Amino acid sequence: MVKELNNSAFCINLKHREDRWKLFSEEMNKFPDNFNIVRFEAIYDPIEPRMGCAKSHIRLIEIAKNKCMSAILILEDDVVFIEKPYAKIQAVLSNLPNNWDILQLGVYETPIGEKIKENIYQIYYAQCTHCILYNHSVYDKIIAYDGKPLGIDDYISYLAATGKINLYHLHPPIAFQRKGFSNIKNVEFDWNNNNHHLNKDYKYYRAVFESIKEKNLEKISRNIEEIRDNYLREQSRIMLHKLSYNNP
């Protein structure tokens, strides 16, 4: 069991997004001097940006597996931390249940979940992967991502909702996403605005995952019909297809 964080993390950054790296560099100052954050050049997919993001996470997890790392902390370049995040991460590690696979250190549009221990909640759905800790126990399941155009957060949520992994999050969170242009959504987006334009769609999207957990295909279909956003509707249909054919 991971009791202490290795003094390193990886930050995914598109080569042409120097603006984001400059802002992220300021966040690095919130960590101890001996904590090493490695810049990882994101895999760029201009046709399916969500696939590029997913492949970047998967590549880093492959590296962690090959190096026999007990866990890997992956950051995205739009992350914003509270003060002294390292101490908070170390504290929560010593309190994690033995069966944890993934710990989200900041999420959005996510039900608070079932309280397991102080500040630790189990969930079956979470949006965003700007600060996420993968345990070695989940490496192979993430690497098995089948190439369907699912966002990495949606793939993780699908695994959790179908009972294949144990997903937890820290509440209150220590990491947030900076407002800015999203290469995945192709719009200026602010997750911290509770009245963002996708608010209603995410209500039904959460319901899709609740229905996946219940294995209620009819209910999934009804919720999909309520979603207006093309991206979220397509993601939902991919997962419905996977569930219908009992795919991993």
Structural Rg:
17 Å
Q: DSSP helix count? A: 8
The top-level CATH class of the largest domain is: Alpha Beta
Total DSSP E strands = 12
Class by SSE composition: alpha/beta
Could you list some keywords that capture this structure?
248 residues, alpha/beta, Spore Coat Polysaccharide Biosynthesis Protein SpsA, Chain A, two-stranded antiparallel ribbon, 12 strands, 20% strand
What this model shows, in words?
- With 248 residues, the chain is of the alpha/beta class.
- The chain has 2 domains: 8-193, Spore Coat Polysaccharide Biosynthesis Protein SpsA, Chain A (Alpha-Beta Complex), CATH 3.90.550; 197-248, no CATH class.
- The chain has helices at residues 18-27, 49-66, 85-93, 139-143, 152-161, 199-214, 217-226, 230-244, and strands at 8-13, 36-41, 71-76, 79-81, 102-104, 114-117, 120-123, 131-135, 167-170, 175-177, 180-182, 187-189.
- β6 (114-117) and β7 (120-123) form a beta hairpin.
- α7 (217-226) runs antiparallel to α8 (230-244).
- The protein is globular.
- The two termini are 26 Å apart.
